[in-house]
Design brief:
The protein has 19 helices and 25 strands. The protein has 609 residues and is α/β, with parallel strands linked by helices. Helix 15 (428-449) packs parallel to helix 19 (573-592). The protein has three domains: 3-235, Aminohydrolase, N-terminal nucleophile (Ntn) domain (Glutamine Phosphoribosylpyrophosphate, subunit 1, domain 1, 4-Layer Sandwich); 251-446, Rossmann fold, CATH 3.40.50.10490; 452-592, Rossmann fold (3-Layer(aba) Sandwich). Helix content is 35%, strand content 22%. The structure holds fructose -6-phosphate.
Length: 609
Amino acid sequence: MCGIVAAVAARNIVPVLIEGLTRLEYRGYDSAGLALLKPTLTRLRSVGRVAELALQANGQTAHHGIAHTRWATHGVPSERNAHPHVSAGLAVVHNGIIENYVELRRELLAAGYVFTSDTDTEVIAHLIQHTLQSAPDLFAAVRLAIARLTGAYAIAVLREGDDGIVVARHGAPLLLGLGTDGNYAASDAAALLQVTRRMIYLEDGDVAEIRGDAVRIVGAGGTAARVPADRPVHESTLSADDVELGDYRHYMQKEIFEQPQALAATLEMIGGAQTLSPNLFGVAAPEMLSGVRSVLILACGTSYHSGLVARYWIEQLAGIPCSVEIASEYRYRVSVPNPEQLVVAISQSGETADTLASVKHARALGMGRTLAICNVPESAIVRECALRFLTRAGPEIGVASTKAFTTQLAALFLLAVTLAKQAGRLSAEQEAEHLAALRHLPVAVQKVLALEPEIKAWAARFADKQHALFLGRGHHYPIALEGALKLKEISYIHAEGYPAGELKHGPLALVDKDMPVISIAPNDALLEKLKSNLKEVAARGGELYVFADADSAVDAEDGVHVLRLPEHYGLLSPVLHVVPLQLLSYHVALVKGTDVDKPRNLAKSVTVE
Ligand code: F6R
């Protein structure tokens, strides 16, 4: 949430800041702003998108600047609440939440500071200004000031008369970019690819100064962190194409269609193997995974749905109990710790505050067997966990998660097979069959994508609906939940996912001709049961949209529309069946004219509670 860019360079950095913010807009898009030293402080802010700010910034030149795109937490989206926030010649941009800002604000008001916004961030600006009265320089003042902050933050600070920009992080992502003509900082690497590929990931507690010709970093303990000994320089492997829209209209569309490649890249490490090694999950995995007798999965949103699918796989294949918890619930409830349990954190961004906190909570309870399934290397969740599996979906920029979900499923299936093998429940032939099915997934998903024209035709009928129900059974029930989440977040149609057998216990009361019911009907052991549930809907005048398999015995009739996926895919069928639901939401959103990649009120990478 919120994106930060900072630059000190010989070139004009205004276009760099604007391009960086555009790359970070997925993190928040309520307002945008920048502060430049020219050499006095110039601040530009606008409500809404970075494009508005770009118009204002047109023609500006500077060599020092910080910039921000906001997802509002404290204070409504408005120009007065937009970052940067200033205090007499000093400007701050901030990502995160300062929990003790009320006390600090009271103290600073008493000291005579005047507040002009409702944000927690303005407190940081005045606090640093105040601390400067007794600190030798800006760097020292930032270090002293952040020691008084409670909460999560990544900040960048500049001040009139100073050659450098000071940045700091605690619980929110921030990296440095080392350029040939200057140095930079940003919330993620995509923002800086325009100027450099050489990145240093800051650690929690780091304070750094970027100048035109050097960077310096002081770690949490107060000692200078050496580059590259203590903070390695990473050469980013992201390509410009990874973050460009290319011929697509939206990132979500691009990311849906990238799923075959994303799956192939994620599965590349198993190559042509007939058997799996636990080392896939890290060097300590053989020891840590051996003797695992139960699994606890922690995640939020779409990642939580992939965990729900994995529960079916882990219990069926490995025969060990698996529970799946929404991270924000787990972290605050009194639970019964089990030190032998494998804790799996699933996250696209690796920065989701609730998921990160839930892993820390599990560790504090003595559960040290932790595994991150994540799409971002060097992210906080990856660093927090003892083991890791990196999905290789590539950057996911559309706020609605798509390719991250299917690659998480591939990773989780690998985990289920690995645990099954360790439990002695898998013959060599069964293992080889599962691996072959995984390897065939990219081709199978490609075939499903070819259904787009038919799905598009269906979408037109949803545009005037207020509500929709999604039904699934077994390991397709989480796919119904995911389909409903996709539809509500990008088309703003209220949607609920239900296990089809649960319909008669309440939600059937909602069914009438205005309530489309979308059903996932793979040709599996539950198909006949599902068909009975569908009859219950049809008998109440409900309009059914059924995603069946080629060989599912479900027929189209009046009020029942059927679309067939090319092949039945056994245990991995959820990976295929989610794809038409992604496409359906996408096309409904297009018909409704919503902002597909940046749905209202949302942002990607939820780094606040
Ligand atoms: C929905 C969506 C969110 C995320 C959730 C967790 O389309 O994208 O529900 O899945 O915020 O994010 P990560 O996976 O980054 O932890």
